[in-house]
Amino acid sequence: MTPSIRTVLTNPIHFVAFGFGSGLTPFAPGTAGTIAAIPLYLLLEQLSLPFYLVVVVLAFLFGIWVCGRAGDDLGVHDHGGIVWDEFVGFWVTMVAAPAGWQWVAAGFLLFRLFDIWKPWPISWADQKVSGGFGVMLDDLIAGGYALAVLQFSSLFVPLSGQ
Fold this sequence. Notes:
- The chain has one domain (5-154).
- The chain has helices at 5-10, 12-17, 29-44, 49-74, 84-93, 101-117, 122-128, 131-154.
- α5 runs parallel beside α8 (131-154) and α6 packs across α8 (131-154).
- 69% of the residues lie in helices and 0% in strands.
- By secondary structure, it is mostly helical.
């Protein structure tokens, strides 16, 4: 069941789970959710690394609850419009990322690649782990893979903001 626009915009749980409405897009809601996560990332990147990590951990834990509740309300474990997990997965990708729009774009592309491709153990988590934790876990792992590739790339690829 896909909730109405009104339901998503008026129910705080659905509003957050649907990425402030970005998950309502009829085409590629996960990509739309990741795009919607970028402006919040640009605010979060101003934090020191320890505070950034605390925010990401809290967003993950909150996501377990909010995505689980939204899924239960909708009767669908991992409804395509639930994109809070993409927000957190992208923020994981961008942990200690180099500054510059090129790195934001690279992080976006890498996260979407791993989130769509789902190499093991992402595919295992996506298929075998249920509830809000399952919704969040596969994107956490995809974000971890993308983080590793982004950090490794930063050692060799000079993508500066200049």
